[in-house]
């Protein structure tokens, strides 16, 4: 399996991060990540793409190395699964394999999808993990929320794996959002609201404030320990991955 990279670079600046992406709760061996974004699509359009993960799931976060092998059956008991294509050798004929990433426990078209299962390295850990995806109408389209709750023993430091998992969930949400249409971030919405309300701040003061804010953010980032998804997740399988068909 590929190493799992940090958030991939996306072509449009609007897709560089979701509107919100954070670890909202953390305690002992439990954590909850919450990521949300607004897309210019209807809930039905979002639902139809959501249940077609082969179109938007990141190749690097698969066992086979290709998201086209990902499928999702949107009904209770349905599998969010991955096909492992056969790999022939000089001495043997290859056989297909498969991976269950999660199992559907709630499916309400156009509204909510809930699945249970440990993603990535959490699959090998005795944890209870639930991903809930909700869709709701927003002023300019549909708000999508991914919430992933994890609890139980795991061979990772909770702060490290929580941050890494949030990065991976964010990347998948960005892939879905990019497929669906333009994204409006919370920050952009806030700025537009201030402008509509008649923000009379001097332009130079605004520039200075922005510069100071950027500097503060960079300083805070420098002080925060760096931990990539690669370092937290690593390789999950030994040897070569199967060839794509």
Cα shape: globular
CATH architecture: 2-Layer Sandwich
Mean pLDDT: 78
Class by SSE composition: alpha+beta
- Regions with pLDDT < 50 over 5+ consecutive residues? 1-18, 185-202, 220-242
Top-tier CATH class: Alpha Beta
The share of residues in helices is 25-40%
How far is the first residue's CA from the last residue's CA?
A: 16 Å
Q: What count of helical segments does DSSP give?
A: 5
How many discrete structural domains?
A: 1
For the sheet with most strands, the description reads:
9 strands, antiparallel
List the helices and strands in order.
EEHEEEEEEHEHHH
User: What is the fold named in CATH at topology level?
Assistant: Alpha-D-Glucose-1,6-Bisphosphate, Chain A, domain 4
CATH superfamily: START domain
In angstroms, what is the radius of gyration?
Answer: 20 Å
Q: How large is the share of residues in beta strands?
A: 25-35%
Task: Describe the protein.
- By secondary structure, this protein is of the alpha+beta class.
- The protein has one domain: Alpha-D-Glucose-1,6-Bisphosphate, Chain A, domain 4 (2-Layer Sandwich).
- It has helices spanning 43-50, 158-180, 186-196, 203-223, 229-233, and strands at 20-27, 30-39, 70-72, 79-84, 97-108, 112-116, 127-138, 141-152, 183-184.
- The radius of gyration is 20 Å and the shape is globular.
- The two termini are 16 Å apart.
């Amino acid at each position: 399996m590929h190493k799992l990279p940090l958030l991939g670079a996306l072509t449009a600046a609007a897709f560089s991060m979701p509107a919100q992406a954070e670890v909202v709760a953390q305690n002992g061996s439990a954590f909850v990540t919450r990521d949300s974004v607004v897309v210019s699509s209807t809930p039905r359009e979002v639902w139809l793409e959501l249940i077609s993960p082969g179109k938007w799931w990141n190749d690097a976060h698969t066992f086979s190395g290709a998201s086209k092998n990902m499928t999702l059956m949107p009904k209770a008991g349905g599998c969010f699964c991955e096909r492992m294509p056969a790999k022939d050798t000089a001495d043997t004929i290859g056989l297909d394999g498969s991976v269950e990433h999660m199992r559907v426990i709630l499916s309400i078209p156009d509204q909510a999808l809930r699945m249970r299962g440990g993603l990535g390295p959490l699959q090998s850990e005795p944890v209870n993990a639930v991903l809930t995806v909700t869709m709701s109408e927003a002023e300019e389209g549909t708000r999508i929320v991914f919430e992933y709750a994890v609890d139980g023993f795991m061979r990772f430091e909770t702060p490290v794996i929580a941050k890494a998992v949030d990065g991976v969930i964010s990347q998948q949400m960005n892939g879905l959002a990019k497929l669906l249409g333009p994204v409006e971030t919370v920050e952009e919405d806030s700025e537009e609201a201030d402008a509509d309300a008649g923000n009379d701040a001097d332009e130079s003061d605004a520039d200075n404030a922005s510069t100071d804010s950027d500097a503060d953010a960079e300083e805070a980032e420098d002080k925060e320990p760096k931990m990539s998804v690669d370092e937290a997740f690593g390789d999950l399988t030994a040897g070569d991955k199967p060839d794509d068909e």
